[in-house]
Structures are given as C-alpha cells and as structure tokens.
Amino acid sequence: MSLSGKISTELPVHATADKWFHIMSKKIHHIQHVADKVHGAKLHEGDDWHINDSVKHWTYTLDGKTVTCFETIESVDEENKRIAFKLFGEAIDEKYKVFTSTFEAIEKDGGSAAVKWSVEYEKVSEEVHAPYGYLELYDHVVRDIDAHLVEDEKVTANKN
Predict the structure, then answer these.
(1) Three-state DSSP state, 147
(2) Where in the numbering of this chain does the Bet v I/Major latex protein domain appear (predicted)?
C-alpha cells in the first residue's frame, strides 16, 4: 500500500474565477470571517499574509473536531490562477510527512467558474487514512466564500 497520494475536488461557483483568485491571493485573512468552519487565522511569522515566507496559524473544524495547523505559500501562478500552500504542525505532522493543498480558480465556458482543491500528501504510516476530511472542509469553505462573494457583488450593484 502506498503512503503517498493525491486527491481533489472541483466545485462550480457563482463568483468569477478572477474574484476567487483575488480573495485567495490578496485577502486570504478574510476567510475566517466568512467561512463557518474556519474559527481563526493569524499571522504567525512575517509582515504580510500573502508572501511565501509568511507563516499563518489556522484554527478550523475538521471531522467534527477543532484543530490547528500552520500554512505557508509555496507558489503563486497568476496566469493559471493557482496557489500551492504547504500545511504543517499540530494537526498535520501527527499524520502526514508532506501535505500540500493547491487552490485553482478555473474559468469555464459561458462565463461560469469552478474552484478546484487538490491535496498531495505522504502519510506517516499505513494506518493513517487519506485526508478526505480536508476535501470536505474545502467544500464547506468554498460554499461559504462563494455566497459571500455573490452577496458582496449584489451590494456593490445596488450602490451603483
């Protein structure tokens, strides 16, 4: 049995791929205010949330439990609207040697969009399960953020 793997989920969203990429690349600290399963986020190291050297500390609900981890940005691909995050510490290190989450905002035909999350991991042992709970968490977070982005769009349209 392999200790390494990759799993992913792709969800259709109402907000544009550009808006999704903007919030993930420039306003990630706002997620804690709009996603029900994200309880807090703080800058642990560094001066800016959106640079590779910064370390963020996240608190969230995973598989019915409140857990924490640290996260850094590994890479940002603006052309393909893709960001790779390295997760480590606390909830991650006890189960995984390697844990990378990749976010991608995808433009679809007809002006629609989708958000794709992929998780590449290496388990510490065969007894550890693949991190499907993270895909479930990402599904909830995507729905909450999408609702926020759509509502924000309506408020902006009503002001004009």
Answers:
(1) helix
(2) 2-152
Task: Give 3-state DSSP helix, strand, coil % of the chain, rounded to 5.
Answer: 30, 45, 25
- Residue-range domain boundaries for the chain: 4-159
Closest to 56 (Cα-Cα) out of 24, 23, 87, 83: 87
Q: Is 145 strand, coil or helix?
A: helix
- Report yes or no on whether pTM surpasses 0.85: yes
CATH of span 4-159: 3.30.530.20
pLDDT at 158: 53
Q: How high is the mean pLDDT of the chain?
A: 92
What's the rounded Cα separation, in Å, for the pair 152 and 160? 13
Sheet holding 65-77, edge to edge: 4-13, 113-123, 96-107, 82-88, 65-77, 55-62, 38-45
The span from the CA of 127 to the CA of 41, in Å, is: 30
Does residue 156 surpass a pLDDT of 80?
A: no
Instruction: Please tell me the distance from the alpha carbon of residue 12 to that of residue 150, in angstroms, as a whole number.
Output: 13
